[in-house]
Amino acid sequence: MRHLEEYLDPSDILRFFEEKFGTGVWRCDPEGRMQWSRGFYSLLGLDPHAVAPTYAEIERRIHPEDRRSQHDPRELVFDRSLLDGEFRVIRPNRALRWIRIQSETFLNSAGEPEYALGVATDITEERRSLQPLKTNAGRYAALTQVADGLLWVGSQDGRITALLNAENKPEAHRLFGKGWVDLLPEEEREAALRIWAAAAETGQPYDVEHRLRQSDGTYRWYHCKAMPVTDVDGNIREWLGISTDVHQQRPAIQHAALPRLTGAQLRAARGMLNWSVKQLAARTGISAAVIRRLEEQNGFLRLPDETLTSLCDALSSAGIELTFGTGKPGVRPR
Fold it and tell me: Domains (ranges, CATH) in the chain?
């Protein structure tokens, strides 16, 4: 069986790869004498009939900002770092190109360096395609610094898989995985998971306010928003979210716009959640007898602000939205 190499001339193979892949080859012996292929001349934009192949000529073509300290060309055989790497070259027509060089030193039978062989590749388009990614990475790094809240990445099943700016937030690790669920008041966890599942199923933005337990046992209010990140086929790959402490803002918000609630809305919301009167009483700290009496009233309930807020917060945390359109007040899943 004959191998492919027996059918091909080495010069044909070299020409094929140089033309198809934008590469060029150079060779350097221990005396610093170099030979360049036509492809290498082409990468530098030089005429093989007018320019001698020397290390000095390569150095002249390298962009001033990318040049390394000058060395004797004879060192190329012993030190591959002199040309290996990525750098810019300026062609005689002032065109700027990026090239990558990889080289290898070959030894003679005595184990001494016989010559160095290098392969250069034009990577200009690759560099250009990476530039937007670098720009976006810079913007992302700035975003993590200016964001007021904790930036996180979540999975479809509600796990937090990454914390993006937690360096100065020592307690942020408690939210990792499904730790955030354990930090919710126990009576609000089921509703929180249901709201997340609805967002994951529909791809709609996740936007809630809930309380999270602090290390000292107290609770603070957080506003959590997340958007789905999709792949090229439109499938949700992950969620990008931010959790912002709004505890100090809530009293002002509640004072500026106190919630409203009718007896019919209270009764309908409880039925939609399939809660008993006792369950709602347990979640709000309001007696079951009071809740029954409130559900029987017509019109807006006249209650102390604290009691009214407690009822509305319990329903909201469970995924109920109170509506006040042009018709009658109503309720709907949020």
Answer: 4-128 (3.30.450.20), 147-249 (3.30.450.20), 258-333 (1.10.260.40)
